[in-house]
Expressed conserved protein
Amino acid sequence: MLVSVLSLLLTTVCLMVTPVSKAYQYSSSFINQVTTYPNIVTAKSRCLPGRSGGSGAPPPTLLVCDPYELLSPDQLMSLNRQLMEMKSRINSDRGKCDRSYPRPTVAVAFVDRLRFGVVEDQSDENIINYAAIFTYYLFGSWRLPTMCESESDKIVVFYSKADGVLYVYAGENLREKLPRDVIQRTAVEAKAAFGSGVYEGIKYLLTRFQEILTSNRSGMFGTR
């Protein structure tokens, strides 16, 4: 499955398109972390912070997964409302599926840190490589609710706090559609927002994504 990849290592502001490595040997702790990460569709209650304290039932559609509780319950629900509003706005002007006019559902996954096997693994290149594998796995396993039920209409945002890495996967149909210069500028600008906190950084990024995905859609995606 081909995917469009945008990665930003916040500690060094590195933006690149990179393939997923197939030869790299990953640690068993990392593999376990990836494969046991909650499925946002089938196990969404595990994605909510404060669950042991009774944060209430999850919403019908959850688009933010935070099993390591980087956010408060209120912050998580605020981001979820923002993503649902984005989904609604993207789909408000069109009633049928059209590959030339993608309307992606965006979901966000948080981890406290990536589980590396040894300290030597923690180079910038390997951090991005680990983040790529993690996000790729979530992209393939999360069957997000989309307008057309296609891989083209899905974006997964992954963030690891301790590693300072933000990674975004999008369906292949979006690869040539999204304005790369705008995405790159947004990624660099987001670094400052993350300086105020995880919530502030992701909120800024999602706000810019909404602007990108809902403005000038006829020009971005062709005829309406």
